[in-house]
Amino acid sequence: MDKKIKVGIFFGGQSREREISFLGGRTAYEHLDKRFFEPVLIFVDSLGNFIHVEPSILNEADIRSFYPSKNQNNGYKVYIESLGPLKVSQLYKLIYKIGSQVKIEELKSYMDFAFVVMHGPSAEDGSIQGLLEWLNIPYLGPGILGSAVGINKPFQNKLMAYATGQEKKYLTISKREWNTSDRSKLFSSVTAKLGFPFVVKAPHQGSSIGVAIVRKRSLEEFSKAMSQCFFETFITKKEWDKLSPRRKKNVMEKMSNLDEGIGFPVVLDGEQIYHPATLLKKLDEYLTQHEVAQLNSVNGEDYVLIEEFISGQEFSCGVIQDDEGRVLPLPPAEVYGETATFDFKAKYKSTVSKKRIPVKTSDANLEKIHEDVLKAFEATGMSVICRIDGFITEDDVVVLHDPNTLPGMSPSSFIFKQMAEVGFNITNSLTYFIRQSLIERIRSGKNQFEVQQLLNHLSTQIKNAPARKRLAVLFGENEKEFILAKKVYNELCGSEEYEPVPVCAALNGSRYIIPLNLMYKPDINEFGTAIATPKHPFIQKNIELVKHVRAFYAGEVDFSVRKVSEQDYNQIFKHTYDCLTGELH
């Protein structure tokens, strides 16, 4: 086979979303189509170092489990920045325990394409995109303009209002204004303009980090929300003195967690403190002389965005493109269940929030979602792939917010569930992301000849890909087997040797070939419900809409559940991965 395209997977990064990026890096490595691509792992640490690492790194639970090393953190799991200013020799020693440092000017020698799965500031804001353009390395997702817009929530609101005519009320309050104004008057001004309740957001964060809903008419609640989104916290002497040493350590650990704490380093009384153990000692000293300690993250926000609270069904809608640049929306997904808000925990940790496709609403509302996300996609300068969130209010008004230029890429992410509904598995989706990104880089007018050659090479590989052995991923009707089948199916999709096909073995002894979209259901119960439910007409329409794109990347896709006889089964499949036994036959 022709030479494979070297894909540099950039994961980690400097933002608060680095752990989500770590999961995305694992997904990209495991699911890239190994017939076409050679993955190269580039871990970006929170100091901005590029480190070439081995795949074994991805077996770790999180970044703090392997970097910095576990034996020197005074009993805490910390990020590299908590070790404070390091000498070059100290930093190199830490880097070379996990891989080898790659200098910026060397990046191009490691890869043909940069698959960026980092999020937030310095990753989705155009910073890494600008660096890659300077180095003539084609990269994933929109260009510098779309990326810059995608990280700026107030500017997004203006553009989306211009594009769709929506009237979402919002305002901003700067850190200076917050520190010098009468906060009671500010609270009254906010409620007078936005109503009640309202939402406070850190304007440059994603994954719902730095988001708070003020539900009580309380200045204390308002102040708490503002501090959360400025990434500052207050600890009183009274509170601190009540805590045992173990609980004080727990407070420091929680502060280190970027999804719920302000992170390190922090500033206390004008001093920058790097490590939680050091901060604990400093607080013990400081609070013997002061009634309250104010801690500020060194990476805090300079202003916050405050928006009206919109009550209604919360949805997320992915958008892709075809070769001509035509924008194609995916089936919108809805968050529902016991959790009322699609926050960080609902996205990544909740077991009570659920997702359904499409949104349970009228066809007119579904059409309106598609109409508005297309307008927003174009108005905000997005390209290749985007996820736009929003609400349908109780009076059937569609309100959009937060376009995501590089959606989360764990196997359970919204974007993959929506792609699956129209016939793309994770591997097909990643191939689409790369090829469409090459098309987008050509449109930018930079390094066209080299990128066109890369595009032609990839297109030829896809068209001429040899047939693989069809392998049945056989599972029964219990949760354990279903979970294993999903994992095996997804990982084998990128195999050079096998083409996996999910097959359900029913209790009555019959076997059924399962369409891939059913393998993206969260559990066996929803899987069973989906088998017995006719395909929604809106999804069927979406399937037809993207047919020409799917045909290139996935070929013919059967969306039906098909019963197979023993004879047919043996003819179709020469190999079976049996999830009942965990063995390949």
- Which stretches are low in confidence, meaning pLDDT under 50 for 5 or more residues running? none
Largest sheet: 6 strands, antiparallel
The portion of residues assigned to helices is 25-40%
Quaternary structure state of the chains depicted: single chain
Structural class: alpha+beta
* Terminus-to-terminus distance: 27 Å
Binned strand content: 15-25%
Shape: globular
Task: Tell me the number of helical segments per DSSP (H or I, 4 or more residues long).
Answer: 22
Total number of beta strands: 25
Q: Output the radius of gyration.
A: 25 Å
Mean pLDDT: 91
Describe this structure in words.
The chain is an alpha+beta fold and 585 residues long. Helix content is 38%, strand content 22%. It has 22 helices and 25 strands. The strands form five sheets. Strands 14, 15, 16, 17, 18 and 19 form a six-stranded antiparallel β-sheet that branches. Strands 23-22-21-20-24-25 form a six-stranded mixed β-sheet. A hairpin with a 4-residue loop joins strand 24 and strand 25. The longest helix is centred in the C-terminal third of the chain and has 18 residues. The radius of gyration is 25 Å and the shape is globular. The mean pLDDT is 91.
